Amino acid sequence: MHEPGPDDAAISTLIRIASRVPDHGRLAPWRFIVYRGRARHEIGEKLAELAEKREGPLSEGRRNQELTRFSRAPVVIGVVFAPKENPKIPQWEMFLSGGAAAMNLLNGASAMGFGANWITNWYSDTEEGRAILGLAPDERVIGFVHIGTYDGKAVERPRADSTTLYSDYSGPWKG
């Protein structure tokens, strides 16, 4: 993906679209981080350093992979699970609300004519990686939505056969 990506007005609209999700208790247990400009390259440098600390010396290809993690699209919007304490609403439900926000963000970007990909990776599940990306210790990554312009048509990946993904109810589980 390449320029143009969404401008400030489009990003504001996308965040508004993304926020229109089921949210039991109106807790907004998620937030968004916009990565753009030089910040995308700085994150790549820090992720390459972290990968080398974890894996040892990186090959040129592997190092380049980390350096470009956040610069493959002009804008990346992180969707972050920011849990709230609530005696009635379970954490898993809050996390699902954040997943719905990420899906709305992805669909909104596509509806506005942009190319978009929802990505997570190894750095999403490490304390050091989350810190580099601006998350607080109690927050978790839901996903990073990379947004820009495609040349031509986006490649469609193979999908599961939807006819195998459902069944009619047949009574309580019997093991």
What would you say about this model in short?
By secondary structure, this protein is of the alpha+beta class. The protein contains five helices and four strands.
What does this structure look like?
The mean pLDDT is 95. This protein has helices at residues 8-18, 38-55, 60-67, 91-111, 127-132, and strands spanning 30-36, 75-81, 115-119, 140-148. The protein has a 4-stranded antiparallel sheet with strand order 1-2-4-3, sandwiched between helices. The N and C termini lie far apart (47 Å). It has 175 residues and is of the alpha+beta class.
Average predicted local confidence, pLDDT: 95
Any idea what the radius of gyration is?
A: 18 Å
Helix-residue proportion: 25-40%
What's the quaternary structure here? single chain
Strand order of the largest sheet: 1-2-4-3
- Provide the low-confidence segments as ranges: none
List strands and helices in order, with pairings.
Layout: H1 8-18, E1 30-36, H2 38-55, H3 60-67, E2 75-81, H4 91-111, E3 115-119, H5 127-132, E4 140-148
Helix pairs in contact: 1-4, 2-3
What attributes characterize this protein structure?
175 residues, alpha+beta, 4-stranded antiparallel β-sheet, 37% helix
